Amino acid sequence: MESYIAQDRDTALRLIADDYAFTSPQDEHIGKDAFFERCFPTTERLRRQKILQVLPTSGDDVFVMYEYELKTGERYRNVEVSTVREGRIRQTQVFFGGRIG
Asked: How much of the chain is helix, strand and coil, in % rounded to 5?
């Protein structure tokens, strides 16, 4: 998540598995290349992003809650669950939250 926030593409490429799958309300099970094309570049849209909580499970999954602010001033909060195996992210599912105060 830190490499995403920092837009550190080289680090993110090393951390994400070649068979990576990304799912969100806007993206249905897209692969690594599509993720880096459509979802990774955020500098044009976001003013800031902050990780609020990281909760590992007993298995391979990690839940992350984060808040972000668009350049328009609107703020949102989302939750992601990522599956990590052998040191690489295999899958991410994003659950969009609503706009916050």
From this structure: 20, 55, 25
User: Domain containing 78 — which CATH number?
Assistant: 3.10.450.50
The alpha carbon dihedral of 58, 25, 27, 72 has a sign of negative
82, 91 Cβ separation under 8 angstroms? yes
Q: What is the pTM of this model?
A: 0.87
**Strand locations in 25-87, DSSP E?**
27-30, 46-56, 61-70, 75-85
DSSP structure class, residue 38: H
- Tally of domains within the chain: 1
Domain span at residue 53 reads 2-100
Largest CA distance in the chain: 39
pLDDT tens-place string over residues 57-75: 989 999 999 999 999 999 9
